[in-house]
C-alpha cells in the first residue's frame, strides 16, 4: 500500500515539474480554481492525516495561503509527505482515528466517524486522483498539450481498461 500512496504523491510532483509559476496560479477558463488551489486542497487532506493526533479533521483547510501561488512550496510539501510516509510504521495503518467532516449542504453539519489511518490514506489518494483529472484538463486548456494517460486515471478504471484490451 505504501507504494500506492507514494506513487500518488509522485504523480503530483512529476506534474508540478512541468508547470511554470504562471500556469500554477492561472484561474480556470470558467473562473474555477487554479492548479495551485487544487494542489493546496489535495495537500490539505494529506496533512490532515499526517498531522492527526487521533482526529483527522478535514475541515482544517489552509485556503488563501502561499501554497496556492507557489509551486516550489507545493513540491516541498509533497517531499515532506513522502518522508512521513516512508517513516510511518506498517502497524500504524490499522490505528483507529476519528474523522471530522462537514456533510451539510444548506447548513454546516459536522460529523465524526471512526476510521483507520490506512483507510484515510486510501481516501486521500483517491481524492487526489480525482483532482488530478481536473488538473489534467486545466493543463490541457492552458497549453494545448496532453499529459500521460495515467495521470488522473483511477486505479479501478485502469484495471477495467486493461481487461477490455484482453477481451478484444
Automatic annotation (TrEMBL):
Alphabetical list of InterPro entries matching this protein: DinB, DinB/YfiT-like
Keyword Coiled coil: no
Pfam families linked to this entry: DinB
Keyword Metal-binding: yes
Superkingdom as given in the UniProt entry: Bacteria
Record-annotated membrane-spanning stretches: none
Keywords attached to this entry: Metal-binding
Family membership: Belongs to the DinB family.
Protein name: DinB family protein
Organism of provenance: Rheinheimera baltica
Taxonomic path: Bacteria, Pseudomonadati, Pseudomonadota, Gammaproteobacteria, Chromatiales
Amino acid at each position: 500500500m505504501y507504494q500506492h500512496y507514494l506513487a500518488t504523491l509522485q504523480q503530483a510532483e512529476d506534474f508540478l515539474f512541468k508547470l511554470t509559476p504562471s500556469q500554477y496560479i492561472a484561474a480556470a477558463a470558467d473562473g474555477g480554481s487554479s492548479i495551485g488551489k487544487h494542489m493546496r486542497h489535495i495537500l490539505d487532506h494529506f496533512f490532515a492525516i499526517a498531522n492527526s493526533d487521533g482526529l483527522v479533521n478535514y475541515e482544517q483547510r489552509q485556503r488563501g495561503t502561499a501554497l496556492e501561488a507557489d509551486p516550489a512550496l507545493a513540491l516541498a510539501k509533497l517531499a515532506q509527505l513522502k518522508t512521513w510516509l516512508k517513516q510511518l510504521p506498517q502497524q500504524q495503518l490499522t490505528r483507529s482515528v476519528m474523522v471530522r467532516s462537514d456533510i451539510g449542504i444548506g447548513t454546516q453539519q459536522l460529523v465524526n466517524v471512526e476510521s483507520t489511518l490506512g483507510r484515510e490514506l486510501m481516501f486521500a489518494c483517491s481524492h487526489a486522483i480525482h483532482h488530478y483529472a481536473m488538473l489534467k484538463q486545466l493543463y490541457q486548456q492552458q497549453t494545448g498539450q496532453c499529459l500521460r494517460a495515467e495521470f488522473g486515471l483511477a486505479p479501478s478504471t485502469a484495471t477495467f481498461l486493461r481487461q477490455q484490451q484482453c477481451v478484444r
